[in-house]
Amino acid sequence: MLHVVILAGGGGTRLWPLSRIHYPKQFLKLLGDYTLLQQTALRVRNLVSPDRQWIVTGKEQEFIVRAQLAALPGFDTLSGNILLEPEPRNTAAAIALAALHILRTDPHAVMVVLPADHWIERNDLFASLLITAAALAEQDMLVMIGIVPDHPATGYGYIQRGNRLPLRLPADVPAQELYQVAQFVEKPSLSAAQAYVDSETYYWNAGIFVWRATTILNEISIYLPRLYDGMQEIASSLADATSAKTVTEVYRRLDAVSIDYGVLEKSQRLLVLPADIGWSDLGEWTTIHRLSPQDERGNVLNGNVVNIDSEKTFVHSNGRVIATIGLQNTVIIDTDDALLICAQDRTQEVKGVVQQLQTRGAMVAYTARTVHRPWGTYTVLEEGPAFKVKRIFVNPGAALSLQLHRHRSEHWVVVSGVAEVINGDQHFILQANQSTYVPAGVTHRLTNSWTEPLEVIEVATGSYLGEDDIVRFDDIYQRTSQ
Amino acid sequence: MLHVVILAGGGGTRLWPLSRIHYPKQFLKLLGDYTLLQQTALRVRNLVSPDRQWIVTGKEQEFIVRAQLAALPGFDTLSGNILLEPEPRNTAAAIALAALHILRTDPHAVMVVLPADHWIERNDLFASLLITAAALAEQDMLVMIGIVPDHPATGYGYIQRGNRLPLRLPADVPAQELYQVAQFVEKPSLSAAQAYVDSETYYWNAGIFVWRATTILNEISIYLPRLYDGMQEIASSLADATSAKTVTEVYRRLDAVSIDYGVLEKSQRLLVLPADIGWSDLGEWTTIHRLSPQDERGNVLNGNVVNIDSEKTFVHSNGRVIATIGLQNTVIIDTDDALLICAQDRTQEVKGVVQQLQTRGAMVAYTARTVHRPWGTYTVLEEGPAFKVKRIFVNPGAALSLQLHRHRSEHWVVVSGVAEVINGDQHFILQANQSTYVPAGVTHRLTNSWTEPLEVIEVATGSYLGEDDIVRFDDIYQRTSQ
C-alpha cells in the first residue's frame, strides 16, 4: 500500500513577520484558501487516503497540525497518524520514525516523503510521477523526484543525473524518464548554477522521495547504524505505555543528519525522476509575489489597500488600511505586532531581521499576537503596567486546564457562545453578555461543552502578568507537568 | 498691550495617517517634546503672557486645545481665552472675532496673528521681528512677516516687495528692513517660483501678521463690510447669555474669505518685514524628515525599528516592530489603524489618499483609534459582530455624562485609579481590579473625582454598538442636546 509521510516539523523565519519561529510557514495560507500543510495533504488525497497519511511534527505544533487537518473533509479521525518528535533531529530520524510506525501495520508499505511547506502547480503530473516512483520503489529502489530548474537558484541543492535507465514497469504505470544519480551539489555559485540549468542534466533536490519503508530502514542500517540502533530501541517500545519516554531518551542522543547527506549521497539504489511540475519552496516573499495573481502593473494588493501609482509591489494587509504611493518593487507585510517593508531584491535578508530580534530576546521573533493552544487561541489586545486584555477563543468540546494564578485576577466576559465555568467551589454556565471574576489564588476552569466556538474577553489585573504564573491541576492535554 | 491670536481651527490631511480630518497637525508632536500648538504658544511666551494669548478654534477641538494648553506651565487658567467658531469661515472671520474679544478689555491692543501649526527655527530673531512689527502696528499699519524663501516652493503664496521704507521707530526697537508690498502671487509655476527666489525681492506669505485690533477692524469695515456688520452684531451680544446663539446665526450667513484676499491685497496700509527665521509649514512628510536629526545614511528611524541597509528613509513607528530592508527614499508612517508607505518625492499626494478614504466613508480618514473627548480619551481595542472592547482614560476631576444606551450593555473593569460610579439607583466606588455591569437601558455615569488618571477596560456587548446609541441626561460639557 502507498503511504504518505509529511514532514511538518521545524521552524522558518524567511517569511517573517507572517511566519514566526513557533509558527512556521507550513501553517500559513499563502496562496489559495488552504494552508501549505493542508494543500500538501490534499495534493495526494486521491492517491493516498487520510488514514495512510502520516505527519511528523513536534509536540508544540501538534495541536496546530491537528486543528488544520481536522478542518479538511475526511481527515477528522487522523489523530493516531500524527507522530511527535521530542526534538528535531533533521530528516533521517523523522523518516526512520515514520517508517517504523508504518511497518507496524503494513510490512510492504511504500512511503512518499513530502515536506509540508512546498508549492506544486501541476498536481496531476506530480501524482502520475508518484505512481511511477511507487512502482520503482516496489523494486527496492530509492526514488527522488528531481525538479527541472527554471532559473539558476543558488540556495538549493542540485543533483546531476547519471545514465538513463530503461523503465521496466507494468504497462499501466505512467512512462517517465528515469536516471541514475551522478552527484549531489549543495548551493552552487550563480555561474555554476547557470551552467547546471543550461546543461539540462541537473535537477533541484526538493526533499521529495519515494521508497519502501523496509528499503530505507535497511539503507539506514548500513550508512547510519547509530540512528538505526536507536530506532530499533524505539520500535521495540512502541507497544509499551512508556514508549514516549523511550523516544525522548533515544532522540536526546541522536545526531541531526539529513537523509540526503546521511544515506542518499552514499546509496547505490538512488534513482531520479525528472519533474517539471511548477514546484516552489516559497522560500521568500518575492516568490509568493511571483506566484500570486497580479494587477496590470504587477502589484499584488491583499487587503484594505489604497494604492496611488505603485508598481511591482506586494502588500499583505491584516485589516489595517494601507496606503502605498509611488512605490517600486517593494514588499510590505503587515501583522498586528510587526511590519516588514523590504526591497524586492532583498527578501532573502528577512532571516537577518529575525536573528537581530532573537538577539534582543524580542517575542515578535517567536510568536504572533494570536497564540495557538490545544484548546483554541488567545490574542493579547492590550497590555498596561498592571493589566492585560485578551480575546480568547475556546474550540467546541475544548477546555482550558483546571488552574490557578498566584499573582493575577481575571475578569471574564462571554461575548459569544456559552461557557462552562469552575470558579472556586462554584460550577456554573455563562451565556453571552454574562461575566465572572476569578480572584488570584482561586482554582478555575473554562470549558466549551457546546458545538459553537466560545469567545471570551479576559481582563487580567495584578502586579505580575506573565504566562508562567500558572499552576495546572488537571489538563485534558497532559500539560500538568509543565 | 501686545496680544497673540493663534488660529487653531481647520483640519489637515497632508500628514495622514498621523493627522486626521478631526485631529489635525497642530495637535501632533512632530518635532520635539511639544505639539505644534504648544510650541506656538511657548514661542511667544516671553513677549506675551498666557492671559493675553487667544486661541480661535472649533467646538469639536476645544477640549483638545484646552488639554494641550493646560499641560503648559502658566497656561492652566486660560479657559476664557479660547474663542469658539461654530463653523470655519476662513481667516478674516476668525481674526475679526478675536479682535472683538480683545477690544473688550484693551482698546489699544496690538495683536499678533499666528497659525497654530508652523515650525520656526530661530525664535529669538522671530521675537525681535515681532517687537518691530508691533511698533509699526502702533502707527496704524498692517504688518506681514515675509518669509525669505530658501527654495522655489510652488505650493505657497508669494508677495513681491515694493519700495523700501525708512524705519522711524524708537531707538529701543530692533532695526529691520521694511518694505511696501507690490503684489500678491498665489502658487506660482516652478519656473516663476525659481525666478522669485533668484530675484531676492519675493517672500512667502506665512499667515503671520501684526496690527492693532482697531486697525484691522477698520480695514474690514472698508473691504469686507458684510463681515464687519456681522461682527458688530456679535460684539453687541457678547455680554448677553444668548451670545453663543448670535454667533451661530451670524456665522451661518458669513462668507468664507481669507484675510489676505479679503483685506490685505487691497489695503494701502500693508508693510512687509522680511524674515529669515527657518520657517516651515511642515506641510508634508518629507519636510518633517528634513528637519529631524538623521543618522549617517540620512535615515530618521523613530520607534522600534530594525533596519538593514536602508537610506534616506523616514519611519514613524507606533510601538509595533518595523523592519526595513534595502529601502531608498521612503516614508513609512505607522499608526494603530492605518499605515502609509510613500516614495519621498510623492508625499504631496497623501491628501489624495485621504480623499479616496472619504469617498469610501472610511472612519480612518476622520479619526484615529484613540478618540479625544472632553473628559479624556478612549481607544477601541477590538470589535466583533456583537462586542466592542475599549480602553478608557478619564482625566482627574472629569466625568462622562449621565447616560444610558438602548442596545448595549457594558462591563467595566477598573485597571488603575479609582472610579466613582452611578449604576441605576446605586452609587459606589470601584478600586483597581473591581468591576461592574451596566445592563442596556440603565442610567449610568463614570466619574474620576481623584487626582490620578482613571483607566477602565470596557467590554460592551449587544446587537448594535454604534457611538450614537446614547441618551445623555446631564453633562458637565453641555452635550445633552446632542
CATH architecture of the largest domain in chain A: Alpha-Beta Complex
* Portion of residues within helices of chain A: 10-25%
N-to-C span of chain A: 40 Å
Number of domains of chain A: 3
Q: What overall form of chain A do the CA principal axes indicate?
A: globular
Radius of gyration of chain A: 25 Å
Ranges of chain A where pLDDT stays below 50 over 5 or more residues in a row are none
Main interface pair? A-B, 59 and 59 residues
How can the largest sheet of chain A be summarized?
Answer: 6 strands, antiparallel
Strand order of the largest sheet of chain A: 18-19-20-27-22-25
Q: And the CATH topology of the largest domain in chain A?
A: Spore Coat Polysaccharide Biosynthesis Protein SpsA, Chain A
* Beta strand count of chain A: 28
Question: What kind of assembly state do the chains in view correspond to?
Answer: homodimer
